[in-house]
Amino acid sequence: MFLSEGTLDRSARFVSRILILIALGLTPLIPQPVFTNVFPPAEFAARRAEVMKAIGDSVAILQGTTERPGEQPFRQSNQFFYLTGVVEPRAILLIDGRKKTSTLYLRPRDERREKMMFGPGLYPGPEAVRATGIEAVLPRDEFRSALAGIARERAPIYTPFRPEVLGSASSFDTIALARATKNDEWDGRSSREEAFREKLKTVSPQSDIRDLDPILDRLRSVKSPAEIAVIREATRITGLAIIEAMRDARPGMYEYELEADAEYIFKKYGAYGPSYFALIATGPNTFYSHYHKDTARLQKGDLVQFDYAPDYKNYSSDVTRVFPADGKFTPWQREYYGIYLRLYQALMTSIKVHARPADVIADAVVKMDAEMASFHFTDDKIKPAAVQFVDRYRKSKARSLGHNVGLEVHDVPSFTETLEPGQIFTIEPAMQIPELHLGIRLEDMLLITESGYENLSAFVPIEIADIEKTMTRHGLSDATAKLK
Q: Residue 135's domain is classified under what CATH number?
């Protein structure tokens, strides 16, 4: 849709204000309340009830994350958020499987902190009980006496073993960092979770300390309707960001300028920020699946690979699209992108509810072979790349089609051998031409339903004609040009 003169002026004024605030170090972050109301208290209560069922006559104890150093926005860790929705630093949650109740421990009210930074907080007392739906919300100092009672009864204690995950990370990232830190001869620190387990053992030496993560992971692997709604919105924001980058792209721009387009959309629709670093690659940078320098200049004749999504209400999305830097696919690009798209769609259309990934792949390979037989190749480098792509699937023994998405962009794995309703994952197979140092990769957000699957990102242009049509429209750079 063409932007009117008035719309351009409003956009220019808005962008101008953002640029001024950034220059002053006052980036306009969307306010995030201490209890986010992402879901109603009943949603979190149901999750805690499932934990109680799993732990039996034991207790589960989780720490919330710490405050951030300096002027950084606070974001709760994923496992703690999943069970509480509480966005307060150094909170502690005690789930008692014997009494079938939960207790939240919070720091006392800090009026100076309220006035300077956050406004009204969440503090021990009846108001916090009403807000969270947790049976008791007590001062953090009282946690020690509660733990002493657990020690006397020698109750087993479940607590997360993995390092916490905040924004822009997944569990394998934090595990790898914790391992590298501990093995570093000039560092050697234990993770916060290890230190907490040692504290629990000291106070309650007769309690068996058990890993809570597998219980939470199993719950998180299937998304509730409320979670699906949030991920759907995160994906809508992702798609709008990609479309804005398509509209704005032109030779001479830098990759980071397209990143700025996306981040404007992320903030406009209330995201905390990105859920991973921007993977925006032009030309030969597309060869690297996780290229993220974002400093190269778009050249005429380049294909741009755009993979970027927001951290929205603690949930992620993950969508990738490819488009020509100058708005029109060349004949060579049409052949390269065209065969890849047909093979990609052969995989996608083979997905079925209750199917094993291996059976989906076997069905897809039959379709891929048919596409290869009917496709008219003219380039002697594209066809071998496509043959290798199909052969990789032909020989595949994969037990998944991609990676799950949820609280983390590479979310906890599925616990079933088949694709079941409520699972959300992406597929993102890459096809590369090493001689030309080029790669291509698309990615969509797929929700398994009772009747099959829904492509949550289907609205994001993927066909050549739709991409080219989108790229004829004005982008944010046309608005910011008014500032000059």
A: 3.40.350.10
Residue 204 belongs to domain spanning: 41-220
Q: What is the pLDDT of residues 409-442, one digit of tens each?
A: 999 999 999 999 999 999 999 999 999 999 999 9
Identify whether residues 144 and 78 lie together within a single domain.
yes
Cβ atoms within 10 Å, residue 189: 11
In a domain? residue 469: yes
Same domain, 196 and 253: no
Write the burial class of residue 290 (CB in 10 Å: 0-12 exposed, 13-18 middle, 19+ buried): exposed
Give the whole-angstrom CA distance, residue 18 versus residue 23: 9
Query: Is 32 part of a structural domain of the chain?
Result: no
Cβ atoms of 113 and 106 closer than 8 Å: no
Residue 5 lies in a domain: no
DSSP-derived pairing of the beta strands 209-211 and 157-159: parallel
Please return the burial class of 405, using the count of CB atoms within 10 Å of its CB with bins 0-12, 13-18 and 19+: buried
Q: Are residues 381 and 470 in the same domain?
A: yes
Q: What are phi and psi of 401, to 5 degrees?
A: -95, -15
Q: What is the pLDDT of residues 349-408, one digit of tens each?
A: 999 999 999 999 999 999 999 999 999 999 999 999 999 999 999 999 999 999 999 999
Does the predicted model carry a pTM greater than 0.85?
yes
Direct distance between the N- and C-terminal alpha carbons of the chain, in angstroms, rounded to an integer:
24
144 in a structural domain: yes
